[in-house]
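Thread amino acids onto this structure.
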């Protein structure tokens, strides 16, 4: 099975007071369709920088990033912007919903940006919200929904245009434990069912119980990759103590 996302020796370096700082240092990873990956590590380990590189928001100093078989940084700025809107879904720490649009309108906005706001597109947006348990909330504004409901709308918005890759930056940071579990479990279920490649940055190791692979970063490098389901479960259980 071809990888939806792969990097080869990706590096992001900065110059500071005559010193070279490696925020991301020769990172090589791959994620298959339907695979949900947790990216973990202490503050300053490079995980958020790596996510920005994968999203096409930061240009790497060296190395390559391929999304759905396409080299992200060999495109022109215009090509990359269009490609990103079609092939990448992004979920932020806070839901970042448009406050004056309903739940359904927030999801449809992504379809509008991709020129896909037709009847099949609207039907798919409603089906996604229904799958996320928001059938009765489609007409609600963000202010009329809980934090967990808003984040589920954000998941629908990230998936509605059927991207190859879904990137989530601390999607449970503002949620209580029960809602955080619901959001991550739902995200993982949809990534598996729709065969997307998903990467989630998280500081809460308990959330790793729903992923297929854990990548731990330290000082900009990949320090450990855990792929065994038994090891991942033990890893997430150990975080409870």
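Threaded sequence (241 positions):
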């Amino acid at each position: 099975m071809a990888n939806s996302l792969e990097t080869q020796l990706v590096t992001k370096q900065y110059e500071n007071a005559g010193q070279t700082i490696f925020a991301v240092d020769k990172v090589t990873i791959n994620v298959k369709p339907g695979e949900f990956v947790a990216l973990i590590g202490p503050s300053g380990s490079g995980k958020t920088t790596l996510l920005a590189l994968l999203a096409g928001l930061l240009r790497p100093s060296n190395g390559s990033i391929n999304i759905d078989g396409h080299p992200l940084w060999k495109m022109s700025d215009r090509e990359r912007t269009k490609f990103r809107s079609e092939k990448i879904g992004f979920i932020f720490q806070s839901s970042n919903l448009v406050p004056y649009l309903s739940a359904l309108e927030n999801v449809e906005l992504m379809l509008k940006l991709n020129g896909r706001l037709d009847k099949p597109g609207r039907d798919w947006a409603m089906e996604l919200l229904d799958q996320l348990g928001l059938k009765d909330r489609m007409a609600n504004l963000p202010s009329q929904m809980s934090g967990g409901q808003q984040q589920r709308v954000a998941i629908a918005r990230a998936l509605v245009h059927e991207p190859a890759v879904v990137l989530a930056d601390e999607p449970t940071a503002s949620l209580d434990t029960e809602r955080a579990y619901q959001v991550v479990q739902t995200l993982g279920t949809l990534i598996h069912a729709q065969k997307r490649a998903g990467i989630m940055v998280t500081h809460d190791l308990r959330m790793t119980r729903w992923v297929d692979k854990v990548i731990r970063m330290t000082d900009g490098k990949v320090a450990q990759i855990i792929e065994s389901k038994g090891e991942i479960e033990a890893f997430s259980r150990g975080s409870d103590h």
